[in-house]
Amino acid sequence: QVQLVESGGGLVQAGGSQRLSCAASGRTLSTYAMGWFRQAPGKEREFVAAITWRDGSTYYTDSVKGRFTISSNNAKNTVYLQMNSLKPEDAAVYYCAADDLYTRTYSSTTARRYRYWGQGTQVTVSS
Predict the structure, then answer these.
(1) How far is C-alpha 13 from the chain's CA centre?
(2) If DSSP codes are grouped into helix, strand and coil, which group holds residue 62?
(3) DSSP string covering 68-97, please?
(4) What b/e sequence results for 117-126 when a residue is b if at least 16 CB atoms lie within 10 Å of its CB, and e otherwise?
(5) Each residue of 46-57: pLDDT tens digit?
């Protein structure tokens, strides 16, 4: 099992920045990729960004490219999502997720890739 705990959400003004953190614990050696997803009220959960532990390859959804940066600190088993130039449409509950050996066949940009999920952290963007 892998446990994920997100932190760093809150209220920010449009155009501002915020950094989310996701601390992983447990059987983290079984994970290859970590992802961030978000879900706004009345909408489906959507992919935001992903990173692989081993080589740091990153993936982003088009709407956040150039504004968001995903990074990792392997020594701390922590993944970050730096969000800049935030827009009201970025407001959502942000979830951290981790894959495992049995889900690696799926694309890192899809929810099916990820077996473990955090509890989510709310990001509110005021206009």
Answers:
(1) 20
(2) helix
(3) EEEEEEGGGTEEEEEE-S--GGG-EEEEEE
(4) bbebbebbbe
(5) 999 999 988 999
List residues bridging with 49 in a β-sheet. 36, 60
Beta-carbon contacts of residue 45 (< 8 Å; ≥ 6 apart): 37, 38, 39, 95, 111
CA distance 119 to 97: 10
User: Residue 35 and residue 46: Cα distance in Å, rounded?
Assistant: 11
pLDDT in tens, 53-79: 889 999 999 999 999 999 999 999 999
Q: Which of 93, 46, 36 is nearest to 69 (CA)?
A: 36
Residue with tokens 């799926």: 106
The residue with tokens 């099992």 is 1
Q: Following CA atoms 36, 39, 44, 50 in sequence, which dihedral angle do they give, to the nearest 10 degrees?
A: -10
